[in-house]
Design goal:
Blueprint lengths: L18 H12 L24 H10 L2 H9 L7 H11 L16 H15 L1 H4 L5 H15 L9 H13 L7 H11 L2 E3 L2 E2 L10 H16 L4 H18 L24 H8 L7 H15 L49 H4 L12 E3 L4 E6 L2 E6 L10 H5 L3 E3 L22 E4 L13 E5 L2 E9 L2 E10 L2 E10 L3 E6 L3 E2 L7 E5 L2 E5 L3 E7 L5 E6 L11 E10 L2 E13 L2 H7 L8 H11 L1 E2 L10
Antiparallel strand pairs: 1-2, 3-4, 4-5, 5-6, 7-12, 8-9, 8-20, 9-10, 10-11, 11-19, 12-18, 13-18, 14-15, 15-16, 16-19, 17-18
Helix pairs in contact: 2-5, 3-5, 4-7, 5-8, 8-9, 8-10, 10-11, 10-12, 12-13
Length: 617
Amino acid sequence: MTYNPAAANPLFGNPLKTRTDVERGLRDLFDPLLPYFSEGGARVRLDGAGAHFDRAAADLEGFARPLWGLTPLAAGGGDFAHWELYRQGLANGTDPDHPEYWGQVNSTDQRMVELAAIGFTMRMLPHLVWEPLPQKAKDNLAAYLKHARQFDYADNNWKFFRILVDLGLEECGVEFDRSLTEKYLEELDGFYLGEGWYRDGNVRRIDHYIPFAMHFYGLIYARLARGDDKRVAAYKERAKLFAQDIQHWFDEDGGTLVFGRSLTYRFACGGFWGALAFADLEALPWGKIKGHFMRHLRWWADKPIAHGNGVLSIGYGYPNLFMSESYNSAGSPYWALKAFLPLALPADHPFWMAEEEAAEFDAEPVSMKHPGMVAFHTKGNVVALSSGQQNWQMRHGTEKYAKFVYSSRYGFSVEADERAYHQGAFDGALALSDDGRHYRVRETNEEAQIAGTALHAVWKPWSDVTVETWLLPANPWHIRVHRINTPRALHGTEGGFAIERADLNADTYIDERGRAVARSKTDLSAILDLGGQREGRAHRALPNTNLIASKTIVPQLRGDIPAGTTVLVTAAMALPADAGADAALANPPEAPDIAALESLFAREGIDVSAILVPERF
């Protein structure tokens, strides 16, 4: 029988309809880790891949991250047979004289991240992980946590990690300096932008860390904190506002917008919906919240996201180191288990008792001024036009933050070779080259504004080349207008959405002047030059560049750009391959009037929040 990589996914075949199904999914995800626990229980080493931090910290990551799911399981009354293993690991990992000691924290350190799960577990399950420990182990664990929390944490969502450790220490009766707790809570409030949106530190990026970190930890605090009623009320009110927008980062089938860093955490993206339930916050009707949560888990159940041994891989839709971050070790993907937070709730909680409700999205675009996005829904997909964000720190940060458009169904691609211009995918992007080998794409914006449902940005691929880009929704299409001012001749390649490619070139490719179209068994993707001057190419992208499909086709428009001022007008769309897609292809949008766009932004343009944050790095 031919090996089916999808069947190695521990969620494969699970209907994920009930609380019992979700429990089973969590157990199935954890069980493949058991052979990789060290003899003393403190370290979990899954393979030989490295991260920028040391091996002991990576092994702690493998040990601690499953607790994000196991702790709610036990708190909700679920059985777990390996708490003695975890107690042994906690004792040995914090014992300086034990060979499996995790190493001392002496500065900003990855260990700080992983200790948050331990603090959360101590707060939720002291009878399982604290009270049974001998006094020496208690003393070592308390000393380890107290030592780590005195150092500066990264100036972003990491500040919540000290808060979670403090909740655990408090629950277990350990004395500590509470002034540090209050200091970080105040600094976290400084990241709040309004209308439910945070930024993840003093940076020009607003990504999935807002739902699965800032709000996730805030809602845990809202449920578990004592004597901080004002802040708890603020966290709940912010999350309620945020739910109105973030629902539009999810599609009707449960997929989420593929955007930003740390996408290897996969279904952690659904953690926000579970955190609302954990905090007893009905930000949307319970049936809607449960629908978003369960559909998201089901979306992942048929993806080949695990190795053959059932261990989650680094990657997104399949194992893929191209898209990984420098801080991804083999244990990193287990932050996905944050999605299982609702298992802490009893079966009769309104979240679990509710009947799932469909998302019921309409076709109207939704403006989000803080992340600089205009989202709209198509069949089985959400599309987000984007301007205003940047990330120069992360691998492939440009592809993760600075493309013109992102999608849940079609993901995005990272480039595999910066010296192979003619082989680039460039989906959702405009690449410019002055030598036919190297290329530049948008990395950051000089200006970024939103006006109604339109976006405008100014960016400079070279110091002497300026591009103005307008982005407009025209559901199911979107329109891009580029006004390029260059002192020298360039060549340009602009890509549409990437769709999965079949073997043996069994798809349909249309390469024509003014358009490129790719049709597979499941999807149709098209890009049109509304000015008619560029050549179309249905490009077979390099393998393993797209985050969802390992082999893709990307329709592209390609052509020369002379010195002076050139205007390019593009329409792009992708849909499931059916009569609706054919009808959309036959009815493209018309080119907008640039003077009218300029007038619109002169009257109504406001700066995207993300671009207003000074970049420290």
